[in-house]
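Whiteboard transcription, Tuesday session. T.W. wrote the structure tokens on the left side:
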């Protein structure tokens, strides 16, 4: 197959996939808004709950990691004197590094941002409520003056 033929096939495939994506992005409703399904409602409590679930997953992952490391230490002890013992030690080090990375990602990349978003949403809702309450007070004062 020549380069031009292969390129033509790749372009055709990308075009088909793009058309599919475009269909998925629309609702074929003639330019109307979203469908009649459920609407996404994000609340501070929902964000905090999701952060808590992330903490649970992180804790469960830590427990599984602890159990795995206990077992692999037994394997490492059985490999003493073999050339593969050094490779297994490297495997253990990399495993620990990756687990620390994943734990950090769950905490710093998921749970903390969710909590931060919950706090910001709570603060924004409070600020907007104050503005709305202030407008109501102004309307009440104007009504009393009439």
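and on the right, the sequence the group agreed on:
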């Amino acid at each position: 197959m020549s380069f031009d033929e292969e390129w033509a096939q790749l372009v055709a495939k990308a075009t088909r996939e793009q058309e599919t994506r475009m269909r998925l992005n629309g609702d074929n409703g003639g330019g109307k808004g979203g469908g009649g399904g459920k609407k996404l409602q994000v609340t501070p409590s929902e964000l905090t709950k999701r952060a808590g679930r992330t903490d649970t997953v992180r804790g469960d992952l830590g427990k599984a990691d602890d159990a795995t490391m206990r077992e692999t230490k037994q394997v490492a002890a059985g490999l003493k004197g073999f050339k593969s013992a050094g490779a297994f030690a490297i495997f253990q080090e990399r495993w620990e590094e990756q687990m620390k990375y994943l734990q950090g990602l769950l905490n710093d990349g998921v749970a903390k941002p969710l909590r931060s978003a919950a706090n910001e949403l709570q603060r924004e809702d409070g600020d907007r409520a104050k503005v709305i309450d202030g407008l109501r007070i102004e309307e009440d004062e104007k009504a009393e003056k009439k």
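Someone added at the bottom: The chain has one domain: 42-145.
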